[in-house]
Amino acid sequence: MCILAIRAAIFIQKWYRRHQARQEMRKRCNWQIFQNLEYASEQDQAELYKFFNDLIKHMPQAAGGAGTKSQTATHVSLLDDKDMLMEEATDIVSTKIEMPIKKQHIDLLIDVFRKKRCNRLHPKYVALILREAAKSLKQMPNISMVTTAVSQQVTVCGDLHGKLDDLLVVLYKNGLPSSSNPYVFNGDFVDRGKRGLEVLLLLLSLYLAFPNAVFLNRGNHEDSVMNARYGFTREVESKYPRNHKRLLLLIDEVYRWLPLGSILNSRVLIVHGGFSDNTSLDLIKSLDRGKYVSILRPPLTSSEPLDKTEWQQIFDIMWSDPQAVVGCTPNTLRGAGVWFGPDITDLFLKRHRLSYVIRSHECKPNGYEFMHDNKIITIFSASNYYAMGSNKGAYMRLNSQLVPHFVQYVSAASQVKQLSFKQRMGIVESSALKELAVRMREQRTELEAEFKLHDPDNTGSISIAKWCAAMENITKLGLPWRLLRDKLAPGTDSQSVNYIRTLDLLDTDVIMEAEADGTTVMDALYANKTSLVTIFNIIDADNSSEITLDEFETAIDLMVAHMSGVYSKVEMLEKCRMMDLNGDGKVDLNEFLEAFRLSDLHRKQQQEADIRKRSNNRSQINQPPSDSVTKLANTISRNTLVVEQDIDPTDCEAKIIE
Question: Which domain of life is it from (predicted)?
Answer without folding.
Answer: Eukaryota
